[in-house]
Amino acid sequence: MEEKNLTIGDIAEELGVSKTTVSRAISGKGRIGDATRRKVLEYIEAHNYRPNVVAKGLAQNKTYNLGIVLPGDYNIAELPFFQKCMLGVSRVASDAGYDVLLSMVTEEDITQLQRAVANRKIDGVILSRTLVEDAPMRYLQEQGIPFVAIGSTEDDNVVQIDNDHRSACRELTARMLANGIRRIALIGGNEGHVVNISRLRGFEDAFAGHADLPDGGRVVMNVNDSDEVDRTVGRLLEENTECIVCMDDFLCGCVLSALKKRQIDVPGRVQVASFYDSAMLTSHLPSITSIRFDVEELGAGACRLLLRMLDGAQDGAWGEKNVRKKAEERSGGKAEERSSGGGKHTRRVDEKIGGSGGRTLLGYELCFRDSTLPGVSKGEEA
User: Fold this and answer.
1) Residues 6 or more apart in contact with residue 35 via CB below 8 angstroms
2) pLDDT score recorded for residue 327
3) What is the pLDDT of residue 28?
4) Which CATH number fits domain 65-162+295-326: 3.90.230.10, 1.20.1440.170, 1.10.3720.10, 3.40.50.2300?
5) Burial annotation 175-192 (CB, 10 A radius, 16+ → b, else e)
6) pLDDT higher than threshold 90 for residue 284
7) pLDDT in tens, 127-180
8) How do 351-353 and 359-362 pair as beta strands?
9) DSSP SS3 for 233
10) Which of 121, 236, 274, 382 could disulfide-link 290, Cβ–Cβ 3.0 to 4.6 Å?
């Protein structure tokens, strides 16, 4: 008998038990004595038995496929984010014996997702982006398909995992205000994307405690291409803006190009910061103050949540009482600061909050670099 072709029938014959007994021992379900279960499990471990995925799926009414939904209208600067997300999802899925199927959707067309669900190709879905008007999310809810959203939504019944954008953006903006900067402008993207709304709220939160700035910062939203950025930068310079904060690295790259074209010194004439870090911003001269998120862990965390749902392990485990702080193992439950790459970093702990679905918020790092003035890069607290 070749070990690679070992079947449940072979195991049953070798051990003198029924195929049903072997199946129960492997699945952990059904009545079976502890001694018999141990005997079966020891045998399959010794002979490197791996169940046939198709047969296992038929028996358990599963496909052992997970779907991940990506936006078909992403721009090139967003590609590294989705790549890292998929890497995290794939790593966890593979370890659990699942494969990953990709569906591309837009705000108007979710045909690929509908086809995967209709043809019963997937057991559950990970949405890689949330929208204010979210057609993929509504469809999955209507079909009763288990899913996890990467991003945030106002629907408390949705299991969701996100970076703590609001707190991160509030903290970065507050640190700059504490350093004496007053004329701060935010350039943001599509207001139909929930992540942009979260970052905007964080920016606005930072001004809430400043009675000397009743009008808050200057905000320009729905800026979606380099030409719009160039025109916006021109207006902000005419208004003597001290610091331009960009909602993501794509917009930040466009801002830096617009400033370079005008021969504007950074940070001497204008300071620049981004609410999302990337390799491009780290390597830029000067390097750009920004917020770093662990995107691969975001994808991995989403996959772990979905697998728990599929295994029936949720059982209200995401209620208000639950607070998960991974970073406590490293920092004793406190935010930790450390020097890296010439800047000061603040790491927030992770937490899980509210709702019957539940929202998990992951930590972040503030990376103060050369594009902001020395007083900020020294890490002075707000």
Assistant:
1) none
2) 32
3) 67
4) 3.40.50.2300
5) bbbebebeebbbbbbbee
6) yes
7) 999 988 899 999 999 999 999 999 999 888 899 999 999 999 999 999 999 998
8) antiparallel
9) helix
10) 274
Q: Which residue type, as a one-letter code, is found at position 129? A: R
Hey, what CATH topology would domain 3-51 get?
434 Repressor (Amino-terminal Domain) (1.10.260)
Structure tokens at 321: 């009482």
Token readout for 252 is 């930040």
211, pLDDT greater than 90: no
**Residue 31 pLDDT:** 80
Tokens, residue 261: 């074209």
Band (pLDDT 50/70/90 cuts) for residue 271 is: very high
Domain 165-294+368-377 bears CATH identifier 3.40.50.2300: yes
Q: Is 70 helix (H, G, I), strand (E, B) or coil?
A: strand
| Closest residue by Cα to residue 367 from 338, 347, 345, 382 | 345
Q: Which two tokens stand for residue 82?
A: 């989705």
